[in-house]
User: Fold this.
Amino acid sequence: MAEKPADDKSKKGGGGVVKIAIFAVGGLLLVGIGLGAGYFIFSGSEPPPAEQLLGPDGLPVPAATASVEPEIDPNVELDANGNPIPKKMVKETPVQETYVTTYYEFAGTFTTNLRGSRKMAQLGIGVSTQYDESIMTNVDTHQLALRSEVLAAISEFSEEDVAGKTGRDNLAKSIQNALNEKLVELEGFGGIEHVHFTSFIIQ
Assistant:
């Protein structure tokens, strides 16, 4: 009968150890679950170490503060602030044909009285065209008749009529018309496009 209390004590001591072991294992499980949950929650917001950007000191830069520089096209011109410069739009235009201008200068000068004046006009005259050389061939062939037309055209102008650039332009146009009319009469085509004064003296 004296050994029974000892058995009860051993049973009680064994039960306490089991309880301590259960509490210890349970605590470790809770800690493990907490660490695992924290890892999954916080690891998703940051890139893997291989993908993290490094700062000047070699340490990883947080994803929130990291800035990725955009790729720059080497063919794009940049202004002083590094902004792309707009390119001009190229507009296709038809190629304009160019023509060769041919000149002919009458020998000597044309001298005649101005209308209603005692003053004389002494003019050096040349003509030009962008037609073929046949026009100047006709001018040279008929220069005697054409000189007469020029003198007649000059004599229709007064001293006031030929004053200034506008007056001279009007005289040149009148001479051009007279020459072309004569060439049409003689050759069937005029072709003189401009009359030029190589000298212009009123005295």
Summary: The chain has two domains: 16-62, 102-202.
